[in-house]
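Working notes for the structural subgroup meeting. M.R. asked for a predicted model of this chain before we commit to crystallization trials. I am recording the input and output together here so anyone reviewing the notebook later can reproduce the run.

Input as submitted:
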Amino acid sequence: MQEAGVAVAFHTGDAGYHELWGVQWGEAARPPLQYTSPFNNYIAATSTEDTFANLILNNLFERFPRLRILSIENGVGWVAPLLKRLDKVAFMTRGQAGLGGKVEGRPSETFKRNFWLCPFFEEDPVEIAELMGYDKVLFGSDWPHPEGLDEPLRFADKLVDRVPPAETRKVMRGNIAELIGLQP
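Returned structure, recorded in token form:
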């Protein structure tokens, strides 16, 4: 994917955490979506963090430093705590090698370099852009799903009066255009 210049998109989905972890706590192994308990939803939501932590801590980006990862329909509320945890566990292991070798540098910097994020409408795109950089935040809407907007361009309202127009353009169009090889 790196060689081809193609970004890899991770979209929310069923990672099997209900069956793997939920049953350990007495939850249903395969609940229908409309009957998923709050705790089972909590467990399932951590699969995104776990996946990205695995990619970073097992050194995928040391081998493929230009690989680009898009996190789509996963929100962004988990990002700041994950970055702190990644750095902490890398420091705590004091150079112990994982599956892909020794972790070099700060994992949080690897995340900031290689990941692009798509916040939910309820989340603050400016807050995540301040953490990651405006070039790492993507607009997205999945209407009629609950995380989408019936008028998707209302997402820009969260940016217009708070950031310069150039930053708004990046988030709303420019970043994804650049990622897929169009003129930003």
